[in-house]
Specification:
It contains 6 helices and 6 strands; from the N terminus they run ββαβββαααβαα. By secondary structure, it is an alpha+beta fold. It has a 6-stranded mixed β-sheet. β1 and β2 form a beta hairpin. The radius of gyration is 24 Å and the shape is elongated.
Length: 140
């Protein structure tokens, strides 16, 4: 294992070759956006099943991670499993996708998004009309 030699940050550096050897249920490491994660203890807890993680073990799982569209909570949880970073010579450019944000700051400033109340109101109107139609057709 390569080390930075920089005691102020204490970030451990790993080559992609080192990571590639950690690819089974006894030791599962994954690279996501040039950060190295030891997900061995998370295998049984992963909502998508351990197979998903084992499929990416020892590899760069950045694209697969982003394709799934992980939540902010998932991104926060992964910090717990970070053990280091890829050495500068082995780093590749990856694109982190933004997490889903269901309302904009502008919507929140105006008391919420119109989408948050339109659907319930439409369902209420529909239920009322259906109820009235049903009872009118029954002769009540």
């Amino acid at each position: 294992m390569a080390d930075t030699g920089n005691t102020t940050t204490d970030v451990k550096l790993f080559s992609r070759e080192e990571v590639s050897k950690k690819n089974d249920c006894k030791r599962a490491w994954i690279v996501i956006h040039n950060s190295v994660y030891d997900v061995t203890d998370f295998l049984n807890e992963h909502p998508g099943g351990e197979e998903v993680l084992l499929e990416q073990a020892g590899k760069d799982g950045s694209e697969a991670f982003e394709d799934v569209g992980h939540s902010t909570d998932a991104r926060d949880l992964m910090k717990k499993y970070k053990i280091g970073e890829v050495i500068p010579a082995d780093r590749i450019e990856t694109q982190e996708k933004p997490t889903l944000n269901w309302s904009s700051d502008k919507d929140e400033a105006n008391g919420g998004s119109w989408k948050s109340w339109v659907i319930p109101v439409a369902l209420g109107v529909f239920a009322t009309l259906l109820y009235r139609f049903y009872f009118l057709s029954q002769g009540h």
